[in-house]
Amino acid sequence: MFPRSDPTGETDAEILEDAPDPGWKDRIAAVKRAARALVATRAEIFREELAEKGSRLGKAAVGFSVAALFAVLGLLLATALVAAILAKLLGGPIAGLLAAFVLYVAVAAAAGFAGAKALSRARLFNFPATRAEIQRDLEAVRAPGPGGDQGPASADALAAERASATPEETDREEKVGAESPVSDLEERFRAGSE
C-alpha cells in the first residue's frame, strides 16, 4: 500500500513521528479509563455468578418454606393429637390423627432435606470465574513492565486509547485542543482509515 499524504505533503509516518508524546495527565486518564473498564468487566462476571447462585438459593428457600409449612401443620396436628388423646380417654378415634401426624412429619423432613441439599450445592462464597480473572489481573500488575521509555506510541495504541475514552472525555478534549496539532493529527488519521 502506498503511504498517504495530506495537503501539506507530509506522510502518515512523518505525522506520527512529529506527534507529541502523551503527557502524564493523559496517561493517568488512560489508566483510569482502563481500570474502569476492567472493574466493569469483573463486576459483570460477578453479577452472572451471583445470578446463578440466586436461582439455587431460590430453590433452597422454596424447600425450606415447604418444610416450615408442614412443620406448622404438624404442630397443629400435634395439638389435634392431644385433643384426640383426650377424646380417646373420653372414647374417640386416635389412630387416624396419629397416621396424619406421621405423614406430615415425613413430608416436612423430606422437604427440609431437599432444601438443605439445594443450599449445600449453592456454594455461597465460591466465585471461581471472578477469582480467576482477578488473579490474572494481579499477575499482570505484578509482571515486570517494559524498561524505560519505548518511544512514541504506536497507531494501534493511540486508537485503543481513543476507543476507551468516554464521550464526555472526548468532548472535553475536543474543546481544550480544538485547534491543536494533535486534534488535526487525529482527523487526518481517521480520514486515512476510512
Quick summary:
By secondary structure, the protein is an all-alpha fold. It has helices spanning 12-18, 24-89, 95-122, 128-142, 155-163, 167-176, 181-193.
The averaged pLDDT comes out at 74
Alpha-carbon Rg, integer: 35 Å
Q: Give the structural class.
A: mainly alpha
Helix content: over 70%
Task: Determine the N-to-C terminus distance.
Answer: 14 Å
Helices and strands, in N-to-C order?
HHHHHHH
| Amount of beta strand | under 5%
Number of strands: 0
Number of helices: 7
Overall 3D shape: rod-shaped
Low-confidence blocks of residues:
none
Largest β-sheet summary: none
Helix/strand layout:
Blueprint: H1 12-18, H2 24-89, H3 95-122, H4 128-142, H5 155-163, H6 167-176, H7 181-193
Helix pairs in contact: 2-3, 2-4
Summary tags:
194 residues; mainly alpha
Question: Mind explaining what this structure looks like?
Answer:
The chain is an all-alpha fold and 194 residues long. It has a domain of 117 residues. It has seven helices and no strands. α2 packs antiparallel against α3 and α2 packs antiparallel against α4. The two termini are 14 Å apart. The mean pLDDT is 74.
